[in-house]
Structures are given as structure tokens and as C-alpha cells.
Write a structure and sequence with these properties.
Layout lengths: L1 H26 L4 H20 L7 E2 L2 E2 L3 E15 L5 E13 L4 E3 L3 H8 L5 H4 L16 E3 L5 E4 L9 E12 L2 E12 L3 E14 L2 E6 L1 H6 L9 E8 L4 E6 L12 H25 L1
Antiparallel strand pairs: 1-2, 3-4, 4-5, 4-7, 6-7, 8-9, 9-10, 10-11, 10-12, 12-13
């Protein structure tokens, strides 16, 4: 009977270790590092589609090197911006030549090319949000337009602080089959050195073409379909007269950014039981 129990415990340990190995191999197709990189690229792409650049990404010797939309500034056309409110106003567009991210460049010849680039990072139903303004006062207006000559132009606004969100850190990463989430800590920058510190999630889905951004509260913040105050855990601002920062905690329950494997803890618990039992049996045999 004792041998049966010992063999059973050993079998449990072997099977558990095998499951851990299989789980690790299954997770290797999309891990935390890959999730962070996909989000960074998607975040930069969102920013450059909205405002032409994503400042703070690649500055070499004081010169901005991208990510950005590379345009032909000698090929310009006038367009009419139409807001969802019905208001219209003129703007000048510059012909798009390339879309440059951190480690990739895409040639652009048409509006379809612009959408195709976005679909390398987002689900198709989300890609459409990138080419229209998500910001007031011109929400819904087409920022990237295709002219009658078949060329595609970027309508640069340049009237506001951009990007409105600065990514500061990442929290828990979870993966469940073909879906995953990553916690993102971001600052919403207001005018005059005022910040709302937000905690949100970006969601990923595995498609036949690979992993893509599929939504989440961080995407809602970027597209302004969510209120940053609802996801803010801290507010800070600079007191110019007194020369110091003031921070106000809005929500102290931000969660623990550490991540543990429940299955691994289970295996360790079994091992802690099995090892002492084995030692006791040996002791009894020698007594």
C-alpha cells in the first residue's frame, strides 16, 4: 500500500511537471514581451494616424527619428474637414509616402494601404478608428483622405498637446487560449503640468493572421470612448508658485502588479507534502 501511495505521488509530480512544460510551450507563441511590443507598436500607430508622430519614442541626439508618417511636403492639397456635429472647415493635406514605426517602414500609395498597415496590429473592425479624429473639437473627421488623383493625404491638425496619454509601466499579463490582456499604467496629460494617472487594460486576440489588438479599456481611453477620470487612481499637478508637486490619491485599490501561476503553486504544494512523507518512510525503515 505504501508503495502504491509513493508511486501515485511521483506520478502526480511527473504529470504536473509535464503540464507546466506544455503550458510554457503553449504560452511561448505570445508572451508578455510580445504583448508589450505589440501594444507599443499599436500605440505609436494610433498616435501617428491621429497627429503624424508619437513623440518620446525615438529621439537621437535631440532629433526626432520616428515613429511618424513620412510625407511629401511639396505635394499638398486642400480638403474640407467634416465633423460628426455637421461643422465643416478647411485643412491642407500632405501626401503620405511611408508609415514608420520603431523597426518597420510601410510604403503607402492608397487609403487601402493605410488600413492594411493598421490591420497588422488591430482587428479590422478597430482599424477604422485610427483614420478619423478621436479628439474634440473635430471628432469623426477624416484625418487621412484619398484624393481624386488616387493619392492619400494626411491632414495635420497640430492644435493640441499630443499624445494625450504617456505609457509609464505595465502590470499583470494574462493569457487564456486565443485571448490575452495586459495591464497598462498611463498618464493623461492636461495643460499646465496636470496629470491623471490611469490603470487600464489592453486586450489581444489570436487570429489566423496572428495576434491583434482587440479592444480593452486602454483602447477606449485612446479613442475617448471612456472617461479617463473613471480609470484614474491618482491626480497630480505642479504648484508653480510654491515650486512643488501635489498628488491626490483617487483610488488606492489599484491592484498588485505581480503575477503568479496557480498551477505552479499547486505543484509546489504537492512536492512539499511528498518529500517529507518519503523522508518519514526512510526513517521508519532504518529504525
Amino acid at each position: 500500500m505504501k508503495k502504491v501511495i509513493s508511486l501515485t505521488l511521483i506520478l502526480i509530480l511527473v504529470v504536473s511537471a509535464s503540464l507546466l512544460s506544455v503550458g510554457a510551450q503553449g504560452a511561448s507563441d505570445f508572451d508578455r514581451a510580445q504583448a508589450e511590443k505589440l501594444f507599443k507598436d499599436s500605440y505609436d500607430l494610433f498616435n501617428i494616424y491621429q497627429d503624424g508622430c508619437s513623440f518620446g519614442s525615438d529621439i537621437v541626439n535631440g532629433v526626432y527619428e520616428g515613429p511618424w508618417i513620412i510625407c511629401d511636403y511639396n505635394d499638398r492639397l486642400d480638403f474640407t474637414i467634416k465633423e460628426t456635429s455637421g461643422a465643416e472647415w478647411p485643412i491642407t493635406g500632405e501626401r503620405i509616402l511611408k508609415i514608420k514605426l520603431r523597426d518597420k517602414e510601410y510604403d503607402v500609395k492608397s487609403k487601402a494601404d493605410v488600413i492594411a498597415v493598421a490591420e497588422n496590429y488591430y482587428l479590422p473592425e478597430l482599424a477604422k478608428y485610427l483614420t478619423v479624429s478621436c479628439q474634440e473639437p473635430d471628432r469623426g473627421s477624416e484625418l487621412i483622405q484619398e484624393a481624386d488623383n488616387g493619392k492619400v493625404y494626411f491632414c495635420r491638425r497640430g492644435w493640441q498637446v499630443w499624445p494625450p496619454y504617456h505609457i509609464k509601466d505595465y502590470g499583470k499579463f494574462r493569457k487564456n487560449g486565443d485571448n490575452a490582456t495586459l495591464e497598462v499604467y498611463a498618464n493623461r496629460e492636461l495643460m499646465a503640468m496636470k496629470f491623471y494617472h490611469c490603470k487600464a487594460e489592453i486586450e489581444f486576440t489570436n487570429t489566423e493572421n496572428g495576434w491583434r489588438i482587440s479592444g480593452g479599456s486602454m483602447f477606449d481611453l485612446l479613442t475617448e470612448t471612456a472617461d479617463y477620470k473613471d480609470l484614474a487612481y491618482k491626480y497630480s499637478y505642479y504648484n508653480y508658485g510654491d515650486n512643488y508637486w501635489t498628488e491626490i490619491v483617487l483610488n488606492p485599490n489599484t491592484g498588485d502588479t505581480s503575477c503568479y501561476s496557480t498551477h505552479l503553486l499547486t505543484v509546489l504544494s504537492i512536492a512539499m507534502i511528498a518529500i517529507p512523507t518519503s523522508l518519514i518512510r526512510k526513517s521508519r525503515r532504518h529504525s
